[in-house]
Structures are given as C-alpha cells and as structure tokens.
Design brief:
The chain has five helices and four strands. It is α+β, with helices and mostly antiparallel strands and 149 residues long. The chain folds into two domains: 41 residues, Winged helix-like DNA-binding domain superfamily/Winged helix DNA-binding domain (Arc Repressor Mutant, subunit A), CATH 1.10.10; 73 residues, 2-Layer Sandwich (Alpha-Beta Plaits). The protein has a four-stranded antiparallel β-sheet with strand order 2-3-1-4. Strand 2 and strand 3 form a beta hairpin. Helix 2 crosses helix 3. It is elongated and about 55 Å long. The model has no long low-confidence stretch (mean pLDDT 91). One of its GO terms (molecular function) is sequence-specific DNA binding. Keywords: DNA-binding, Transcription, Transcription regulation. Pfam families: AsnC_trans_reg, HTH_24. InterPro entries: ArsR-like_HTH (IPR011991), AsnC-type_HTH_dom (IPR000485), Dimeric_a/b-barrel (IPR011008), Tscrpt_reg_AsnC-like (IPR019888), Tscrpt_reg_AsnC/Lrp_C (IPR019887), Tscrpt_reg_HTH_AsnC-type_CS (IPR019885), WH-like_DNA-bd_sf (IPR036388), WH_DNA-bd_sf (IPR036390).
Length: 149
C-alpha cells in the first residue's frame, strides 16, 4: 500500500511519540486536526498502523538479560511448540524462520541464573525441540521501535 508524504511524516511523528495529540500532529505535519484524525483512521483501517502501544525499557523494568535463541523443532510439532513458547512470559517475540522448522526467539529475564533456569527447565523440557542455539545481547544499538521511514 502506498502512503503519501503527509502520511509518511505523520507515521514518523507517531513513531517518535504515539501519544501526541491530533493538534500537535497537525502543527508538525501542516494539515488540520480533523485531517490528521481521518488519516490516522485510514492508516489503521488499511492495517498500516497495527496498534498503539507502550515501549517498556526492559532493563529498567528489571529484565537485565536479553538473549536470542534459534530453536529447531520437529516439523509435526512445530505449531504446538511455537505456541507453547509464545505463551511463556519471558518470551518477548518469536518468529518462524527459513530452514528446517526453525524458530527465532527473543527472551528477557532478570539475571543469568533466570536465563539458565529458562534454558534448562523451560526450554529443554519442551517435547519436539531438537536443537537450541543461544546468543546473549551485550548492547542494543537499535530495535524495531527505532525503525525510521
């Protein structure tokens, strides 16, 4: 779907501050408050804006360890395992990847002991997982919320 320059600017402003009022947005984008409201509704109706949410700083919230996992799964258990892991409170995101039934998972925990417990007690106990590879994040430079149009 195409967006024009005004919609793009509006989206950029919303990425920067999703709580900005229609009045504030209209001043920054150069159109009326009513036009801003209509355009945001249109962007939502088209599915370009999926939802408005809050971005929580996981470290300040107490989740100081962030790790990515590549998890290979038996193909006939793929949906079951993916849903099981997606429902876990420490799993921030999970994606199906190309390759032999592979999941890419981002996990946030309080400390390394909790990460070890997650791996040994929660992850390795899931039937259908055939391989797990993990990487701990040392420093974040950019995340999805940092996406610029």
């Amino acid at each position: 779907m195409k967006v024009d320059a005004i919609d793009k600017k509006l989206l950029e402003e919303l990425v920067e501050d999703g709580r900005a009022s229609y009045v504030e947005l209209s001043e920054k984008v150069g159109i009326s408050r009513v036009a801003v409201k209509d355009r945001i509704k249109n962007l939502k109706d088209k599915g370009i804006i999926e939802k408005f949410t809050v971005v929580i700083n996981s470290e300040k919230f107490g989740k100081t360890v962030s790790a990515f996992f590549e998890v290979d799964v038996e193909p006939y258990r793929f949906q079951e395992v993916a849903q099981n892991l997606a429902d876990h409170p420490n799993v921030a995101s999970i994606y199906q990847m190309t390759g032999p039934s592979t999941l890419h998972m981002h996990v946030l925990v309080e400390d390394f002991m909790k990460l070890e417990n997650f791996i040994n007690s929660e992850l390795y106990s899931v039937q259908g997982i055939t391989r797990v590879e993990s990487s701990v994040i040392l420093k974040r430079f950019k995340s999805r919320t940092g996406y610029k149009l």
